[in-house]
Specification:
The chain is built from eight helices and eleven strands. It is an alpha/beta fold. The protein folds into two domains: 80 residues, Immunoglobulin-like (Sandwich); 195 residues, Alpha-Beta Barrel (TIM Barrel). A five-stranded parallel β-sheet has the order 7-8-9-10-11, with helices on one face. Strands 1-6-3 form a three-stranded antiparallel β-sheet, with no helix packed on it. The protein has a three-stranded antiparallel β-sheet with strand order 2-5-4, with no helix packed on it. 27% of the residues are buried. Bound molecules: zinc ion.
Length: 290
């Protein structure tokens, strides 16, 4: 549970008194599964002659203020208090308790299976300060951990780079997913110093992803080529959200080929034993570094 208070003040000042048109404000977020609105206050000066609340098509609360008379200043002052429940937002509601249940099930399956073993991994958010969204004792129970940035894209290059580098220094982070965050046609890459990312990846034994989701292709071919040239381990993954998307592997393979990546440079091409050995080496060396 995380209690957040957000205050937002906007003041417009004018040299001479003016009359105001209708103002629409979306300052009161909707309740949802991961957040509860505890309190919301909106003070407007001058007092609007009419204040209405409506819902937009997404269910957000929108205030519509109308004014009579004139003034030299218009001020909106909004404060909200939220209970933003972290445990519910992890991996779309994958709480630590549910993750542990899954681990128990997989262990039981592995104990019975003769011809194969299941590995267990999770894609875990890199938080705004570079910490991971699960505590280390939880990460330690996973076979591999994919760290990724899904929020806070506007932080600026230094902050985002620090975030990724900090995550890579976590001994349990195996791979950084979609390292630039681009979504083609939708979102530019966030600003990140990829050279610093490559260096830290090499130094810490963290792999970087060639994400094969058609809108991502991230790392792209030239970036993958550069990372590979610096000795960084890569992995192609499909970012699959449904079974048919597994076919995207072919697209990732195309990116890897354009980057002249060979099987020995890809975690995908390792045997289970060699993959686990590679992961164990990072965990052990990070332990030695303390
Ligand atoms: Zn992701």
């Amino acid at each position: 549970m995380q209690l957040l208070t957000v205050r937002h003040v906007t003041t417009y000042r004018y040299r001479h008194p003016v009359s105001f048109g209708e103002h629409r404000l979306m300052v009161r977020p909707r309740d949802s599964y991961d957040q509860r609105l505890l309190e919301a206050n909106l003070h407007i000066i001058p007092e609007p002659s009419e204040l209405r609340w409506v819902h937009d098509v997404f269910g957000n609360c929108v205030a519509i203020a109308r004014f009579s008379g004139t003034a030299c200043e218009l001020r909106f002052d909004s404060t909200i208090r939220l209970d933003h429940s972290r445990s519910l937002t992890v991996a779309h509601g994958m709480t630590v308790a549910r993750l542990r249940q899954q681990m128990t099930k997989i262990r039981a399956l592995n104990a019975r299976a003769k011809r194969f073993q299941l590995l267990m991994g999770a894609e875990v958010d890199i938080l705004s300060d570079g910490a991971m969204d699960y505590p280390n004792d939880v990460l330690a129970g996973l076979d591999f951990v994919v760290g990724s940035i899904h929020s806070g894209f506007t932080q600026g290059e230094a902050a985002i780079t620090r975030r990724v580098v900090t995550a890579m220094r976590n001994p349990y982070v195996t791979l950084i997913a979609h390292p630039t965050g681009r979504l083609m046609g939708q979102r530019e890459p966030y600003p990140v110093d990829l050279e610093a990312v490559y260096r830290t990846a090499k130094e810490t034994g963290t792999a970087l992803e060639i994400n094969a989701y058609p809108k991502r292709l991230d790392l792209c071919d030239t970036a993958a080529r550069r990372a590979n040239g610096l000795g960084v381990m890569l992995a192609i993954s499909t970012d699959t959200h449904s079974v048919d998307q597994l076919e995207q592997m072919a697209i990732g393979l195309g990116v890897a080929r354009r980057a002249w990546i060979e099987p020995k440079h890809l975690l995908n091409c390792r045997s289970r034993a060699m993959l686990l050995q590679w992961i164990a080496r990072k965990r052990a060396s990070a332990g030695r570094r303390g």
